[in-house]
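User: Teach me something about this protein's shape.
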Amino acid sequence: MPARRQLEGLQFAYALRDSLGREGYNGSKLRGDLLAGLTVGISAIPLSMALAIAIGLPPEHGLYTSLVAGLIMALLGGSRYSVSGPTAAFVVILQPIVLQYGLSGLLLTTLMSACIALLMAVAQFGRVVTYIPNTVTFGFTLGIAVIIATLQVPDLLGLELDGTLPEFYFAKVWVIVVAALSSAHWPTLLITVISFAVMLAWPRLKLPIPAHLVTIVVATAAAFALAAIDAPVATIASNFEYTAQDGHTGEGIPNFLPAFGLPWQNVPGEPWSWSLVSTLLPQALTIALLGAIEALLCAVMLERMSGSRYYANAELFGHGLGNLVAPFFGGFSAAPELARSTTNFRAGARTPIAALIHSGVIAASLMWLAPYLKHLPMACMATLVIIVAWRMCHGRQIVSTIRTAPVADVLVFFVCFSLTLMVDMVVAIGSAVVIAAFLFMRDIAEMTKVRDITKLLKHVPRPLPEGWRVVKISGPLFFAAADKIFAELDVLAENQAGLVMHMDGVPLLDAGGLDGLTSFIKRCKKNGVELILSDIQFQPLRAMVKAEIRPENGNFAVFPTLADALDAVLDKSPEAPPAC
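Assistant: First, the predicted structure itself:
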């Protein structure tokens, strides 16, 4: 039991302590961590910026998120190879918050979601999150990916939009396709085609340089060439500016580290109040739930790849604390990201030190690469976001699930996917989980059966007195199965002198099953049918004792085995034949 408690406990900073303290650290591990950290850090720079742009923030806030949240989550988390930062899954939730409440509203929401994640970790809720079915996860991630891809179309085509896009998904599609498609900008479309071509073709060469790094270099060079022929495209510098600490403004991203600030300052149109907190609470709950799912799914995948164990509650605690600190430095909601984390493992990472080095690379990019990063084309950034969204939704697994899964699971998947598009992710997940639970209970209820075994010599080796019948119940006797089972028992007990219920196949008896059993005992007594139960397992027996269901002489009895119950029945008949 103590070992079990330790396994399920919080295990503060488990991954770092386990990899450094228990196993030790040496030069070989340092080299692996250094190479992996540099690789992932360089890869994370454009992706972090692209995801910040996708939710409507200046790109430096994506770097702040990877720097601060990535650092703390690596130090305090429970998965050795996880690398954290902005993720595509959050885009759909965060963008509306930014549109309505601005950066400060988003930082406040992130802070609230972090508190919820910490409560989940302290309550040891980590493993419970993994109870969400795969079909639900695939459904909402595909829905999110489709919405993200739709939101990137204006940047991919250089469209001119009048105002912001509507909230309803199909209204967004209508505005983009019908109202704005005629304003497509051919130089921007050319950058998009080049970006997608490089992203898809480069991995075929099997060279160690990440595809998206080559993509941004080629796309930036193409943007300079177009500008030289008087066909400029939108870049980070043309779309964003910043204000330095001394008051001067500049294009692109700042070349200094994030400064400390209170997340709830300057919320547009909504001064700090508890009413604002209550307004943002549903979004905070959604972010906390989705972040927990992302973190734990990533940890599970890394465990399968590496064989290195993770601790769910420690991972959830590190995730919560990282998001608690990040908003004070301009960072928004972050989570371990699967593509970044698998790259970390495959690049040779040995401990969480690799993720710390990744954060150091992000900090160095802010200090020294800012003047160059501002030239990145917006179309290229949108391309990277779409590629990340596609990888996030596990397209091949979804196709395999649709082809091989039972019809009920496919139904759950399509319900979740459709509701994600038409309503929102909270309604989608809640509805799909409820439907999946009902379908599961239906299947379990159908597994619970009653069988007449009176004439099976294996169970009843001797003939019973006239009017006696033996039945066997198999499966959990819970509320969804109780009505059907006791209705069948009423038919089997009709016009009988007695009924033996062999219950060794009943592992569970819940309140609904107890209520049905109590009523059945009363009906048997009223109809003059003597009822005998045998081979009751521990949980059903404990439930019956707690419900004060007691034997009644001549009406209701309980025996430890079926053989004892049959002997008691045979003793009631002085003319019963002797045992063979």
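Now, about its shape. The CA atoms of residues 467 and 495 lie 8 Å apart. The two ends are 48 Å apart (CA to CA). If you'd like, I can walk through any region in more detail.
User: That's plenty for now, thanks!
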